[in-house]
């Protein structure tokens, strides 16, 4: 077996109905229900102008630094509703994709989104496109196409582990990863959290929110109040 230089053609996917339900929820509300440990590094930011949030199943790519050969393989394999998500060994020196590859994925393959742990290019065009694409920034410097690399294997991106078939949810706040093994047990709590958050927003805007928890928490932590000015 060519470990580090292989392509898996199959992956276990969550139920499409689950993906659809998560697509209606803000990433922040779902992340809060996972102990706030599922969000990719804020270095990976939205680069396009989508009309709706990104939600789909992970087609993972493990790339050599500055190389997109296996990303091209993923382009051939991509299906509607996939999120192409690529780890790049933390490299920031070369753009991993640009307008041509984006158009193939967005317009022809109709993927749900693209997440790149590295720069992209042709941002003058991509910044106005509707398919969500997340990256660390942009550079005109292009990639190599030599490999090795892998497709549909576990990857680490933005300090978070991703398995093939995990649910990838993103909005303007950023991207979170929902394990396909946890998704069914998580969805109802996440939906309830989102609904409760709407009520909290309304109370905050009218000043009717209960803020007494702040005093209780500070008291429990033995915070001392000083009725005087701080002196140097």
TrEMBL record:
One Pfam entry name: RraA-like
Coiled coil spans: none
Catalysed reactions, as listed in the record: oxaloacetate + H(+) = pyruvate + CO2; 4-hydroxy-4-methyl-2-oxoglutarate = 2 pyruvate
Highest taxon listed in the record's lineage: Bacteria
Needed co-factor(s): a divalent metal cation
EC number: 4.1.1.112, 4.1.3.17
Biological role: Catalyzes the aldol cleavage of 4-hydroxy-4-methyl-2-oxoglutarate (HMG) into 2 molecules of pyruvate. Also contains a secondary oxaloacetate (OAA) decarboxylase activity due to the common pyruvate enolate transition state formed following C-C bond cleavage in the retro-aldol and decarboxylation reactions.
Family statement drawn from the similarity comment of this UniProt entry: Belongs to the class II aldolase/RraA-like family.
Name of the protein in its database record: Putative 4-hydroxy-4-methyl-2-oxoglutarate aldolase
